Amino acid sequence: MLFNPRTYDPAQFDEPTRRLLRATVDWFESRGKKALIDTYVDRTWYSDFLEFAAREGLFAEFLTPSAADPEKRWDTARIAELNEILGFYGLGYWYTWQVTILGLGPVWQSENEAVRARAARLLTEGHVMAFGLSERSHGADIYSTDMILTPDGEGGFTATGSKYYIGNGNVAGLVSVFGRRSDVEGPEGYVFFAADSRHEAYHLVKNVVNAQMYVSEFRLEGYPVRAEDVLHTGKAAFDAALNTVNVGKFNLCTASVGICEHAMYEAVTHAHNRVLYGKRVTDFPHVRRELTDAYARLIAMKLFADRAVDYFRTASPEDRRYLLFNPMTKMKVTTEGEKVIDLMWDVIAAKGFEADTYFDKAAKDIRGLPKLEGTVHVNLALILKFMANYLFAPADYAPVPRRLDAADDEFLFRQGPARGLGAIRFHDWRTAYDAHAHVPNVARFREQADGFCELLLKNAPSEAQQADLDFLLEIGQLFALIVYGQLVLEQAAETGLDADVLDQIFDALVRDFSAHATELHGKASTTEAQAAWALAHVRRPVADGERAARVWERVEALSGAYEMQP
């Protein structure tokens, strides 16, 4: 189930994809662990990786839709695979790829053929891209941009203003910049345009983070924006910003999976080969429990993310279910990644601080993913918009197949207006749970899920509680667990996941639901009826020592299974 460079064979993809994925793994492995660690510690810009990617045509092959080049495609399945690989070797390598994806979003959504052709050419030449949305004073609040475009009287503009927290802003061949016209008020004044970091009116201020990656602050001073540089205007520019994030923030989940996988090999190998008080560390019951929990949570992360890919690839104007599963991957999978690292860190303790480990880097970098492309709270609030239809108004959909075909996911660049989320319908979530009702902890969790529906029907949040975001976010956490479990179950069926591992995953979900129910019980605005419901739905997982022992054997087998080349 876990990515292992020693045995990696991406046989599910076509030959060009297999070659590029395998070449990427081989490049990192031949470069070795010392170089990986030294460049991280020294905060060395990863020009050697970008040279490799340019030489192989990696970004060009994976990030050019067929509309821009019929020989290439935008294929979410293989993009997710590369996210995982790059995360496995280091967040910085993933980050330069991720912000290139974001920078390309407004371009591939644009009808400006000249800029689209320029972007395709720049990718072929090995350039990276940047997404100029965030600002120091406003963050990603696109209603409040201070990048001002003043008409130049010749059909174009001059742009003046700053952008902040912009990855690749130091070298990007094309920067998609969001701003507003000085002469038009309201949404009609928004503009997305293409800039070049090499232009004399583009001023690089600094790297705002203390890291290997370059997360820039830049300023435009009278930057000439020709009519042919404009990507979107008015409400279309606003939609392009949100739809780009819809595409881009999905990538955070699979990067988190990759980081956790590499860290797990190190942690299990260290713990299993360390003797304390005359016993292997992994002979202590609490150590086995923590590592088994970390393993089960990591497998669940991977199952959910892989299944979400299928909904992205099957999306259409009539099927927008991906718009729920997207913030779920961003919020839930990445926070689970933090839990996985914390569980392993409790076991390996001081080893997790050592400079010559990957784990030391993973423990720092895993924290960033839940905080990029919208905080956990922002994404939870978004998830709540879907709750009523998801739980209570199922619709008929044809089953979504596993999507590993070599197809272009062109709908992602014609998503349309970024509204109407509350009207999106879903297939019946109970179907996946019914199919696995024989698994003890799936059945136990289903009791909690049904109870949550009863809470909303009989003791729904009042108008005042709906205005209390602290209370409402706890409701969102409980709802998110049901959605998470559904896709885990669907992917378990697709992959024939071992029933022991699935039961262990839902052991964790039962405990998580109980923890959030307890939190809801303690909220100041929770009513007596809601508090009584919360206590009544705290459940113990179904214990099975033999099952836990069998899952532990899988964890134990990770010891020595992979270590990066020196």
From TrEMBL:
Keywords: FAD, Flavoprotein. It holds the Pfam family Acyl-CoA_dh_1. Transmembrane segments: none annotated. InterPro entries: Acyl-CoA_Oxase/DH_mid-dom_sf, AcylCo_DH-like_C, AcylCo_DH/oxidase_C, AcylCoA_DH/oxidase_NM_dom_sf. Residues 238-386 form the Acyl-CoA dehydrogenase/oxidase C-terminal domain. Belongs to the acyl-CoA dehydrogenase family. This is Acyl-CoA dehydrogenase family protein. It comes from Kitasatospora aburaviensis.
